[in-house]
Design a protein that fits this description.
Layout (H helix, E strand, L loop, with lengths): L1 E6 L3 E8 L2 E9 L6 H14 L9 E6 L2 H15 L4 E2 L9 E2 L9 H13 L4 E6 L2 E7 L4 E9 L1 H11 L19 H28 L5 E5 L3 H5 L7 E2 L3 H13 L1
Helix pairs in contact: 1-2, 3-7
Length: about 260
């Protein structure tokens, strides 16, 4: 079995694989101030509740977009699991052909998503990852990673309204019944959810034109993917475990 860890700005997602089978997955809040021991005890408790043991882990692989937490999680793996983890970054074999101007600028999560998408779907395609930021990653018919777009995530957009507009409240991200809100909360939810769906449609449409690929599979992943996918026809499939799958694939390519 292997442990795969994706450290994001909002959540840390972990998965335990036996060969190709995802046995368990967990989602933790990203706590930048937590220590090696705090993460070790927390993850150990999750393992115990799921009937798992650290000693059964053959190896660990980590992708991260939060640099201050990388060393904390690495030290946790060494101390509690007894494994020195692989890190997705320069020097690791991904099999991905990056056509980016500076490949080192591509986030580890975007690389991992692209690797998994190429393995599981027919190119050309676009991966839309709804996280703290929403990323659009474009892969052409030759399985080359071209780049993409980055926009503020749903959570950032919602929080910005509350922080910058004095009379607007902090709201939950829920889909309203109608686009015409009859109160402030529903009006904000309508603007954010339906407006965001329209933004996704617009960017995907422009990507198809730029890539000259009218038939282009669009895969959505991330914690809020299902919320937006239900409001647009431009998303072909939601795959919430895409990042974990990519980590498994990269681990096997470097084993």
């Amino acid at each position: 079995m292997i442990l795969v860890v994706d450290i994001g700005n909002t959540n840390i997602v972990l998965g335990v694989y036996r060969e190709r089978e995802l046995l368990h997955h967990f989602r933790l809040s990203t706590a930048r101030q937590s220590t090696v021991d705090e993460y070790g005890v927390l993850i150990q408790n999750l393992f115990n509740m799921s009937g798992l043991s650290f000693k059964d882990m053959e190896g660990v692989i980590i992708s991260s977009v939060v640099p201050p937490l990388v060393q904390v999680i690495v030290e946790m793996c060494v101390k509690y699991i007894g494994k020195d983890p692989l890190l997705v970054g320069p020097g690791i074999k991904t099999g991905l052909n990056l056509r980016y101007e500076n490949p080192r600028e591509v986030g580890a999560d975007r690389i991992v998503n692209a690797v998994a998408a190429i393995e599981q779907y027919q190119c050309p395609l676009v991966v839309v990852d709804f996280g703290t930021a929403t990323t659009f990653d474009c892969i052409d018919a030759g399985a080359n990673y071209l780049g993409g777009a980055i926009v503020p995530g749903l959570g950032i957009s919602t929080e910005a309204l509350y922080l910058r507009a004095s009379k607007l409240p902090r709201i939950e991200l829920e889909k309203p019944k109608k686009v015409i809100g009859r109160n402030t909360v529903h009006a904000m939810q309508a603007g954010i959810i339906f407006g965001y769906a329209g933004q996704v449609e617009g960017i995907v449409r422009r990507i198809k034109q730029e890539m000259n690929a009218p038939v282009l599979k669009v895969i959505a992943t991330g914690g809020l993917a299902s919320l937006i996918a239900s409001e647009t026809e431009c998303i072909d499939e939601v795959n919430p475990m895409l990042t974990l799958e990519g980590l498994r694939i990269i681990y096997n390519r470097n084993k």
